[in-house]
Design a protein that fits this description.
It is a single chain. By secondary structure, this protein is α/β, with parallel strands linked by helices. 31% of the residues lie in helices and 26% in strands. It is built from eleven helices and 15 strands. The chain has helices at residues 42-47, 114-118, 121-134, 151-162, 174-183, 195-202, 217-225, 247-253, 262-268, 272-285, 302-310, and strands at residues 2-6, 15-19, 31-40, 66-72, 84-87, 97-100, 105-107, 142-146, 166-171, 187-190, 207-212, 226-234, 256-259, 293-298, 317-321. Strands 3, 4, 5, 6, 7, 14 and 15 form a seven-stranded mixed β-sheet that branches. A six-stranded parallel β-sheet has the order 10-9-8-11-12-13, with helices on both faces. A two-stranded antiparallel ribbon has the order 1-2. α3 (121-134) packs across α4 and α3 (121-134) packs across α10 (272-285). The model has no long low-confidence stretch (mean pLDDT 94).
């Protein structure tokens, strides 16, 4: 089958097309999925440079999230051949076929196409876990989302809005502000040294939560933007710098910092994806959320997809299609 393997740690060019065997199923404990689309995210950029928290022996077929059709499933699982599904295999998705554990597979609503389905697993499950479970966001609160025009940011905007929160997007350009508004932001602010002032124009009493996949200097500035009792939700460090916090800032302002790592949550709770998906699917079926897909590239162009993400040129979710 056709696949794309990571063969080195020299950046996007280390993603190389290859012909590899179809994964062996033979009544295994995994679901065999014919891949119709695979999501590409910032972790694939970090992995190509050896900067991600997880490491793999090379060469390896990456691709953490896919949408496709079940070809074979274990007896007693919820799935049968022909079912359209989204899945989080974590590796192997950049290929025509992939194996995924049954508890990391969930049904794909009919009104979503394959690319939209591939945009769901990592970003929307992360957004739901981060905002509702870790950030305790509830209806009526105001939430700031950094990096709000990308795949994870747009997911957070939509999930937060579905929870009843007022969503303020912080983005890099006015064009990205339009993407964020289209994804569901109630207001959008272009990032610069004065971003907090413009957020305050929309939320003069402060904000109750900040969804931060960026890190760097804006983390500390974000603590100052929180209202008393506010929560900084740490999702990643796309800026490249892992910030440090002086805990007296938390004490004196009665604010908190919480981490939200979907992978660690899955390691601790084998039912994590099933539980989160059971809450996400109704939002999809009610059309409360729908993934905005940006670039759709052929499978062989994983390297170009990663370059788009590294260059901060991607909006919405980037997917590759076998």
């Amino acid at each position: 089958m056709r696949a794309v393997r990571l063969v080195g740690l020299d950046g996007p060019g280390s993603y190389v097309p290859a012909e590899v065997p179809v994964p062996a199923w033979a009544s295994s404990d995994a679901v065999l999925v014919r891949v119709a689309a695979a999501g590409v995210g910032f972790p694939e950029a970090l992995l190509a440079r050896g900067r991600y928290q997880y490491r793999h022996e090379l060469p390896v077929i990456l691709g953490a999230e896919v949408a496709g059709t079940v070809v074979a499933a274990p007896s007693g699982s919820r799935f049968a051949p022909g079912d359209r599904v989204a899945a989080l295999p974590f590796v192997g998705g950049f290929a025509e076929w992939v194996l995924a554990a049954p508890d990391r597979v969930f049904p794909l609503p009919r009104h979503l196409d394959d690319a939209e389905g591939a945009a769901l697993p990592s970003n929307y499950l992360t957004a739901l876990f981060a905002l509702e479970d870790r950030g305790r966001v509830v209806a009526g609160e105001t939430v700031v989302v950094h990096g709000a025009a990308g795949g994870l940011g747009t997911a957070a905007l939509q999930v937060g809005r579905a929870l009843g929160a007022r969503m303020i997007a912080v983005v890099g350009t006015e064009a990205k502000a339009e993407v964020a508004r289209a994804a569901g932001a109630h207001a959008a602010v272009v990032f610069d040294d004065d971003w907090r002032t413009r957020v305050a124009d929309h939320a003069p009493d402060g904000v109750q939560a900040i969804f931060d996949p960026v890190g760097g200097e804006r983390f500390t500035d974000g603590l100052r933007a929180l209202a008393p009792g506010g929560r900084m939700i740490v999702v990643g460090f796309a800026e490249g710098t892992i910030p440090e916090v002086r805990v007296n800032r938390l004490l004196l302002r009665n604010v908190s910092v919480v981490g939200a790592a979907l992978g660690s949550h899955m390691d601790a709770d084998p039912n994590a994806i099933t539980t989160l998906a059971a809450r996400l699917v109704p939002l999809l079926e009610e059309h409360a959320v729908r993934p905005p897909v940006g670039a759709r590239l052929p499978l062989e162009r994983v390297a170009d997809a990663v370059r788009l993400i590294e260059a901060r040129e991607a909006t919405g979710k980037v997917v590759v299609v076998p």
